[in-house]
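Deviations from the work plan: none for this task. Representative record:
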Amino acid sequence: MIDNLARIPLDAIRVFEATARLNSFTRAAEALGMTQAAVSWRIRDLEQRLGVALFVRETRRIALTLEGQRLASASSEALNLMRRAINDVMEQDQSVLGITTLQTLATQWLATRIGMFQLANPDLAVKIDVDNGLSDFSGHGTDIGLRFGSGQWPGLESRFLIPALFTPLCSPELQASLDIRTPADLKSAPLVGLPQEWAEWFARVGMADDSETPPPRVISENQAMEVATAMAGQGVALGNPVFYDREIRNGHLVRLFDANIALGGGYWLCYPKERRNLPKIARFRDWMLDMARSDASNIEACRLSGQTVGTIG
Amino acid sequence: MIDNLARIPLDAIRVFEATARLNSFTRAAEALGMTQAAVSWRIRDLEQRLGVALFVRETRRIALTLEGQRLASASSEALNLMRRAINDVMEQDQSVLGITTLQTLATQWLATRIGMFQLANPDLAVKIDVDNGLSDFSGHGTDIGLRFGSGQWPGLESRFLIPALFTPLCSPELQASLDIRTPADLKSAPLVGLPQEWAEWFARVGMADDSETPPPRVISENQAMEVATAMAGQGVALGNPVFYDREIRNGHLVRLFDANIALGGGYWLCYPKERRNLPKIARFRDWMLDMARSDASNIEACRLSGQTVGTIG
DNA sequence: GTCTATCATAAGTACACCTTATGCATGTTC
DNA sequence: GAACATGCATAAGGTGTACTTATGATAGAC
């Protein structure tokens, strides 16, 4: 007997099975994470390869043909068989995703977003390990690392998440009382943070640090603390606008200027190269890159919509 | 339970199943019509997606791991299920391939090659229908048409097979006795075929037809007859070198000049666009295009290796 | 009549998958 | 113990399939 199966792309069977089960191209597309057009295309292609119509297209609804019904039941049976076998064979603990992350990223970014991921992936437990050192991936249940740097780590595949930006932030009350409109106005404002960071910032906006920049009044141990201080009205701090997007949007923090001053490097998501396609890793990666992308466009939108006080450059 | 299957390309399962069954990357590659490298790549990719080794690689041999064994039996079961369902559902008569073809192509080209196809496809019966008219594809069990023309037929997908070339051919004895070395020598030779074809040929090689070209001595009803006449030593005929490749190679015919004079158009393989992926059609098409390709390179090699008597241009 | 939900189709695009080419290790032959 | 043969691994590069985006078409709901 001739092996017609050889000419049938098996991935089409998966699409067909979902479509038959949900009785809708649109819903199958949702379920499979693709577009309705793609499902429509795929089913038509399958039908042509078989030389048989699988669905009758009525407007706004489809119905399986007789052949479609027969194929559907076989497909679902075969897919379930495979599904069981694969779950059976796969690496243990596909149900727990281990993440090591930097403190900053954990509190300022991940904490507010990870809930979304867990809602969308109720079957995946997430174990977050805050660790500022460079943890290794061998054993230890670590699947994904969130790190700061250049993105170059041997043996690891790295995907860029968030740029290392900083920009002056303060409370709306402080902004109102000091009426800061240009970088020069900051010379007389209470500054929070490391002197060299402020010097860098002034230099980047074109103000040589020769003039009498007052030393920052408060120096904390990390960015989160500094910005908290600023939010409490104690001064102006340098912070990464990506991390404080929410506070800026709801008015708890004011972003004084629209310029994003970039440091070298950035925040990266990474994992061992050869584990790139493990389902749990791939799912988290895809989700997180989506989030980062939408952050990037948020920041851009925020800058362009003039929610800042002043403009530089 | 989390659907890990969603992240597994099902086509990889087919590759895995063949590899497990044949216990060799190389042989699986042969069976699947792909390269050993591709199989190796695919299996590695699958292993990475599963996070589990499926084979142990010893040098010059592989062995299934425990997980591999479990997956192999499930895969073969699932694939057999699908195979049966698809054969069940597919259009009837996937076992008979209907071809309509032109007389010339049938006798001069197809007849000597179709055996190869049937040897390679013992499960497919071939029904050849010689028909010089433009047969239609609706019903009638016609799957594939072999036609002459421009390749533009509405509703059909056409693949180019053989160019419409012609070149003077005669028997080796005639060549020896007449000692033909230049096109001019043909003016005194006995010609076979239609006068206007010869006029066209002389014009194409740069000899205006003003001079006293003798009228052809013999005019037959088709090219096959004319070339047969030439082969019998009765004269020089114009024939398509592709069709007489074998006779030229084994010395029954001499190709006088290496120039290929091309007419417009050529021979095409065609079928209804929407049936392009029907297994029987796809298999024949792929095979035939392969043959045509190797013909083309044969002709080229023949020209370049100086098996002709004279050179033009 | 307008609006909306669904599938169809066209055009453009990207990346997965394959090939080609080569390397490497080991077993085999003389 | 060379020289060769065989089978798998790996890198680099090309290509076509299978997507997306954008738009059209149809008919049922209101």
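Residues 9, 11, 34-35, 37-38, 41-42, 45, 58-60 of chain B lie near DNA strand C (CB under 10 Å from a C1').
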